[in-house]
Amino acid sequence: MGHAATEVTFTASILKKHKDLPRYVALPREVMLDLVGGFTAAVRFNGGPACRRHARPWGKGSNARFFGLAEDQCRRDGVDTGDTVLFSIRQVDEVPPEFARAIANSPAAAEAWAAMPASHRRNRCDHIAGAKGAETVARRIERAIATLERGRPGSA
Q1: Is the pLDDT of residue 72 over 90?
Q2: Measured CA distances, 96 to 6, 16, 138, 141 (Å)
């Protein structure tokens, strides 16, 4: 699978091992049989906006995988521990290829991108990868590059 991978839909319960730990979802084995190790994915709950999550192996050598759910994400989407939710998941590249090319073509944007905290880079990639149409992707990349070139990486 790559950036244009097929989106897979499945139903799963939101789990939590302990009140002090984050919520998570265990991926059904049949959903990701062809993958090895962890991977970054665009995840949607109940058809909502995509967010970037990292699916991790459950344990060393395990075929089982899970991804964590942020508190604000659960609040935004109105889900809680124990809820059964319709998920859609699609493996994505770390940086959408079109965005990576645009960054590489602008030395100022590349410098600002390299200076950004990893969390800001992930948020920017999530925003671009979450676009539904090619025109929206292009517009978001154009705005991000312009912001980076102005030296305002935190607001890209």
Answers
A1: no
A2: 15, 31, 11, 10
Whether residue 82 is found in the same domain as residue 143? no
Mean pLDDT, the chain, as a whole number? 82
155, pLDDT greater than 60: no
| pLDDT confidence bin for 134, thresholds 50/70/90 | confident
Q: Domain total for the chain?
A: 2
Write down which residue in 91, 122, 138 finishes a domain.
91
Residue 1 has pLDDT above 50, yes or no: no
Report yes or no on 2 lying in a domain: no
Which CATH number covers residue 34?
2.40.30.100
Strands 23-27 and 65-69: antiparallel
Residue 3 within any structural domain of the chain: no
User: Do residues 67 and 54 touch, judged by C-beta distance below 8 A?
Assistant: yes
For helices 97-104 and 134-149, the axis angle rounded to 10 degrees is 30
Looking at residue 46, what is its pLDDT?
86
